[in-house]
Amino acid sequence: MFFGALQNSEELDIDAFGVSIVGGDLTDDPGFKADFLANGDVHASGYVVHGTEEQADVTIPIAWLLRK
């Protein structure tokens, strides 16, 4: 079914978003992890990348979906 939908992609409204909840790599960047654990505020962290823009509002993908 999904393949069939992709064949008719001119009817689909598709967009791509990159989301980081904390704004860095807690697993592979020990410096970032230490700084985040010492000073990080999860409510003020994170970002969304849409196209080439990085924005602090992590609700952008949800707003895009709800406008449908």
Question: Could you give the distance between the termini?
Answer: 21 Å
Low-confidence stretches: none
**DSSP strand content:** 15-25%
Strand order of the largest sheet: 1-2-3
Organism: Hydrocarboniphaga effusa AP103
InterPro entries: DO-GTPase1
Domain Double-GTPase: 1-65
Protein name: Double-GTPase 1 domain-containing protein
Structural features, described:
- The structure is a single chain.
- This protein has 68 residues and is of the alpha+beta class.
- Strands 1-2-3 form a three-stranded antiparallel sheet, with no helix packed on it.
- It has one domain.
- Helices cover 34% and strands 16% of the residues.
- A hairpin with a 2-residue loop joins strand 2 (47-50) and strand 3 (53-55).
- The mean pLDDT is 85.
How is this structure best summarized?
This protein is of the alpha+beta class and 68 residues long.
